[in-house]
Amino acid sequence: MLKVLVAVDDSPYSDAIIQMLSAEMRPADTTLRLLHVADPFPTRRAQAKGSKEYPDYETARHEQYEEARQLLTSAAARLEAAGFSTEWTVHEGDARGEILDEAQAWGADLIVLGSHGRSGLKRLLTGSVSDAVVHHAACSVEIVRVIHAAH
Among 53, 68, 92, 101, which has the highest number of CB atoms less than 10 A from its own CB? Predict the structure, then answer.
């Protein structure tokens, strides 16, 4: 049985991952664990719920969790319709560390995640989640890219 940890967010990369898994993996031999990593301090959302001086982190974190739950249940439903066995979880923290920790704790054989294609200053400041996972994972990693057509 192949255990695949799938990092899911609200980007087009997650849709591409679901399409790739449905097309390339055998559902009978694969268990998927969908993981979404939420920001533990969603400051902009908290300020929008409260104020700049008194951000409402409790409401912001609750809303963030509910959005993650909806995202994951929708992705799980699509994958289950393709015949996969799925489960999902939401973690808070740094995506790089949370993906690596979950893969190790669960005993994943493969990690699948999207590459957001950041470059330059943004990549320097935030780092690349996919690069960190590729370089530090104890299992295989597959990066799914979205190719944009030239205009």
Answer: 68
Q: Compute the CA torsion angle 63, 69, 72, 77 (nearest 10 deg).
A: -130
Q: Whole-angstrom Cα distance, residue 35 to residue 8? A: 6
Residue that the structure tokens 């087009």 belong to: 12
Contacts of 144 (CB under 8 A, 6+ apart): 13, 16, 17, 20, 112, 113, 114, 115
CB atoms < 10 A from the CB of 75, how many? Answer: 22
Of all residues in the chain, the percent with pLDDT exceeding 70 is: 89
Structure tokens belonging to residue 91:
């973690």
Q: What is the pLDDT of residues 96-130, one digit of tens each?
A: 999 999 999 999 999 999 876 544 444 444 458 88
| pTM for the full predicted model | 0.87
The position carrying tokens 């409260």 is 50
Distance of alpha carbon 138 from alpha carbon 110, whole angstroms = 9
